[in-house]
Predict the structure.
Amino acid sequence: MAKVIFDEDRCKGCELCTTVCPKKIVVMAEDRINIKGFHPAQVIEQDKCIGCGFCAIICPDLVIEVENKGAKTCRKEC
Amino acid sequence: MARPKALVDMSQHYCPGCTHGIIHRLIAEAIDTLDIQDRTIGVASVGCSVFTYKYFDCDMQQAAHGRAPSAATGIKRVHPDTLVFTYQGDGDLAAIGTAEMLHAAIRGENITIIFVNNAIYGMTGGQMAPTTLVGQVTQTSPYGRQIETQGYPMKVSETLATIEGAAYIERVSVDSVKHIKAAKKAVEKAFRYQMEGKGFSLVELLSTCPTNWGLSPIEATDWLRENMLPHYPLGVYKDKGGEQA
């Protein structure tokens, strides 16, 4: 089961992670701001995550950690 | 996937969407993979990356503008068993530091230069750099870079590939997951070559500057793909002792 964890207070709201998710489940939290004053990125539908780690690879601020326990990894585009 | 050990657990000062953060991580991951954190010495340049000494958990030195390869030469000669890398932007490396960079390669110094090319001066507010593309609008080229008065963009990797002393020269990009993975391999290879004593290596990373390009981070990666990739083709330009591209 794959899981994405966001260190929300480190997020600068650049939205790069939302562009690379093959499942399009990384979205910006428009309802709240973090300590830096940005809308942080989040994943609500955790069960849809396939643990490919693309969001963590493109994040410039090391906000995202992906736990991938036995989930199949997406080989598309990589 | 977790934070590399060679990177200090702190928030970095870079603008939202700035790819310096990705490149920092790639370097830290390479240091972790080679397990040489206690034997690594980095040399920071002048530019946005001036604070790299705070972010890498290894010995760091701050050099004068453009002089990082010279400082690195001294460090490497005194401590030949360490990994010495410089972290330089295009304003630092390709303008004021051209002589230092070229002659470090000519001497075949066994150091690695991490060259971050975003085609603009970042920290000083978005002035035209030697690597600025033809027609690109910057603070000091408001009508776009004109060939007649400002000449052509400098191609650092191609230039260095003609120098005998250079062992490994590759240009990579950090605009997509696929390119970031390739970039990670290039940085690792450069570090490995240095530890094997093969000589001078430089990895050029095409990078974005959303703030000074006046674009959002997503638009900036698109701009890199559409404008920089055709002018700065990716690939291995020199690989002494390895497979020639």
About this structure: Residues 49 and 88 of chain B are 7 Å apart (CA to CA).
